[in-house]
Specification:
2 strands
Length: about 300
Amino acid sequence: MLQTLQPIYQALVSEFVIEVPACPLALAGATGEPESHDADFQTRTEEWFQQVDRQIQVHQLRQFLQTTPLASENVLRNLIAHHLKKPLKSGSDRDKIDFLLVQYFSLCTPAGMADSEVDLKYVAQVLEPVLGPQSAELPDWLSSLEDLIHSAAQCRRLSELLHNGTLDQGRKLKSQGGDSYFEPAAMAAFARFSFMIRRTFFRLMHDDLNAIQDGLRELERHGITTVDCRRAQFSDQEPTARLRMICQSWKVMFQAEYSSGHPLRMLVDLRAAVDDALQGGAESKPTARAAAASGESDSGAVLEE
């Protein structure tokens, strides 16, 4: 399995400039020597993978696997098995497993499935190749997950999802579970939760971007071509044409990296600034009023899911 994973780990090392010695597997291949099966070679190889694992953060793994053509179903299956076989798993290992299960599930699931079809039984069936056969019953200690999924689905804009506590409660439940998280039924339940949160995120993100672009068109219709976007870390007279270009670039970026905290803050605050301009600036001001004094947005919450 490690030999299969070596190319993608080598790509991770190169992508994020991780300082580790050369992989024993790569050295053996470069010298043309037959692959060694002795204990020392195996130990050194496993230690190399552990070094990389310790230095790769979950957000880096997410960014890489959502953009590389190397992330095939077989590679994801081997990555999950690699992390699950560790005798001692850290919080970082748990978060990586959670992401990998969602990524694997997403890859194996038809894009057009309705939310109602993504029940726990279906998730368990899709994840059976990596988690083994299991009963599709929600563990008692995870009974609140369904309420959290429903709460997220009721959100009408991204700021609601980031501020209503759903994400924090999900993360807290996951961390408090300790080793119980690694029970197959629990991992399947969290994979479903994270998948549904991901779907909700993309829906709200696109809604916010569309609302911003609609708002910019409406402002321009009233002759307003700049917006006070200091709240979103832009200028107090940001051209609407530039804001439209930024929204287009964000649509591409968020397709790959849906957990970027800083851009999410900017997106939420930019919609607030445009909303404020529509409400108070369209009547008489060439530049929108400053955003309502609601304090610095805390929407940097990272969607670990």
